[in-house]
Amino acid sequence: MKEKVEAALDKVRPALMADGGNVELVEVKDGVVKVKLTGACGGCPMSQLTLKMGIERHLKKEVPEVKRSSRFKLTAGVPKRDMRKVYLDHIAATPLDPEVLEAMLPFFREKFGNPQSLHSAGQEALEALEEARSRVARLIGAEDSEVHFTASGSEANNFALKGMAMARRDKGNHLVLSAIEHQSVLHSAKSLEKSGFSSTLVPVDRHGLIDPEAVQKAIRKETVLVSVILASSEVGTVEPVADIARVCRAAGVPLHTDAVAAVGNISVDVKTLGVDALSLAADQFYGPKGSGALFVRKGVRILPIIDGGIQEAGRRAGTENVPGIVGMGKAAEIARARLSERQERMKALRDRLIERLPQRVDRVYLTGHPDRRLPHQASFCVEFIEGEAMLLNLDMKGIAVSSGSACTSRALKASHVLLAMGIDHALAQGSLVFSLVDSTTAEDIDYLLDVFPPVVDRLRNMSPLYTKFLEETQK
Amino acid sequence: MIYTDKVMDHFQNPRNVGVLKDADGTGKVGNPVCGDMMTFYIKVKDNRLEDIKFQTFGCGAAIAVSSIVSELAMGKTLEEAMKISNEIVAEELGGLPKNKLHCSNLGADALHAAIEDYRKKQAPKKMEAPPEAEKCFCPYCDGPVEGLESACTACDVDLEECPHCGNLTKKGEEKCVKCGADLEP
């Protein structure tokens, strides 16, 4: 019977293939045929009809034993093997550079020693650890001893906020942050509130820029720390951190900057910026996940948040993640060497997207600053529809994007960053962030530009907000 | 994938999308603050739902929910349709992610609102029910979220798992909001 069904399916196959689809036989059991529509058919809204009216009818005619056919599994939503894959979610994670992986591998295998051990296996690991520290330090213009490895950018932010605030607890209990900080900064401040701290959120303008003067006004005599983001991954705006640092220095308050989205992608120098602490993470510049660092300027006091042994100069206990740290070091070295070339390439592709997307779809708005922005980031709000629905539709076309920070992708509220910029709730729900990686090509951008308008149309056609808009404009 | 195949199917091929210009009843729920809005239009003949159309602004779950509600209710009597609950809808879809259970699972509410609207038009003197349109629910604690506050503001406090039913509940609450069991202080 299976052969008969196969033969019958072979007859319909040319018709399906003409439309770029195909059908696969999954199983035949008790007269029930299970098939799987693949290729263009899998994602086609008419697939149910194709199956019922076309394939089922045909099978019943050719093979009388067939009771019914059924689609085995919706292949839609699962990217097909032959589909173009375009990864535009740098802000969630960059791919690991193969050179970085090569550098890491020996430290998973033969070079497994603990850097704190006095024997040669340990010393070999220690050497690699310190080499990585130098490479990271050179990337941001710091001294080696000012770099402290952590397990993520979030940990670096927690360390800076909690460690520096608690170290200056006797001097006061007030923090100044911007309204568009990452969750790891905002929630650290919230957690400090339980120890008697309070914080002031400095607003941003409609481009997401922080005004240094507003920071100055927010500083009080009991302020012990200011923390501002160097560049927001969600809206791409690069903040005037050097100006904010001058304000803080004049007030005698240390400044931390969350530079996780920036380091490795734009030139970051702790001396030029004039900051006292700076967070970074390897997974934003083609290094491994689970590898972050906090720069703390020499002489700046900070208390550990992980107590234990003498690792990281006693400031961050725990056996070092040697492979991850080595990977971060290698990624830092590569980032430093390729920075300007990378920036130029990214910027050209980003601008292609920023310029052309609003030409293809109306009522799409760029979020963040038009010029002062990360070279690999282009974020938009699309009116009348919601971000996740767009994201899922793009994923079906093989395009990976984000509708905000990965850390909030499962929360339902609109992004606090967009709301802080004065974007209203409905529009903020339509947020999409495209962020480019090394392998992104102009063809990838053009593919996105072709795929995007029908996705928007489809969702707008089922949106009550769009219907309302059309009715109002027709009046 | 965060969604079941059935959710993805309804999200991709939503049934009964559209507007009924001469609808006998219209129901709207949600608002952009929650991230999801649904409008249901119904045509009623001999106490049965003769036609249903919907429009949805929202995530994948919200679109799939609207679609399956329209499918489930089509041809049913009004009484039968009123029995379709959000729980049944989630079950029919093979489950929804926990954080989507409330904000996005409003399809049955929108349908019921459309039926109420129809009934009100039939008996115009009936007492008006309080509007549900501006109400959101916190995805974690089930509590209503008022006005323009974001959906989870009510939960900007510590959450802990109820040891009895496993649902998230606010720290310091005396009773679990889900199963009603007493919680240790």
Q: How do the strands of the widest beta sheet of chain B line up side by side? A: 1-2-3
- Write down the overall mean pLDDT of chain B: 80
SSE run of chain B: HEEEHHHHEEEE
Distance between the termini of chain A: 62 Å
Global outline of chain B: globular
Q: Give the percentage of residues in beta strands of chain B.
A: 15-25%
Give an overview in words:
Chain A has 475 residues and is of the alpha/beta class. Chain A has helices spanning 2-18, 47-62, 98-104, 120-140, 153-167, 183-193, 212-218, 241-251, 270-273, 322-360, 387-396, 416-420, 425-428, 442-461, 464-474, and strands at residues 21-29, 32-39, 68-71, 86-87, 147-150, 174-178, 198-202, 223-229, 255-258, 277-281, 292-296, 364-367, 377-382, 399-400, 431-435. Chain A has three domains: 2-71, Fe-S cluster assembly (FSCA) (GMP Synthetase, Chain A, domain 3, 2-Layer Sandwich), CATH 3.30.300; 86-94 and 339-474, Aspartate Aminotransferase, domain 1 (Alpha-Beta Complex), CATH 3.90.1150; 98-335, 3-Layer(aba) Sandwich (Aspartate Aminotransferase, domain 2), CATH 3.40.640. Chain A is 42% helix and 16% strand. In chain A, strands 5-11-10-9-8-6-7 form a seven-stranded mixed sheet, with helices on both faces. A three-stranded mixed sheet of chain A has the order 1-2-3. In chain A, strand 1 (21-29) and strand 2 form a beta hairpin. In chain B, the strands form three sheets. In chain B, strands 1-2-3 form a three-stranded antiparallel sheet. A two-stranded antiparallel sheet of chain B has the order 4-5. A two-stranded antiparallel ribbon of chain B has the order 6-7. The model of chain B is unreliable at 130-134 and 147-152 (pLDDT under 50). Chain B is built from five helices and seven strands; from the N terminus they run H-E-E-E-H-H-H-H-E-E-E-E. Chain B has helices spanning 5-12, 60-73, 78-82, 86-92, 107-122; strands at residues 25-31, 36-45, 48-57, 136-137, 144-145, 159-161, 168-170. Chains A and B meet through helix 11 and helix 15 of A and helix 1, strand 2, strand 3 and helix 2 of B.
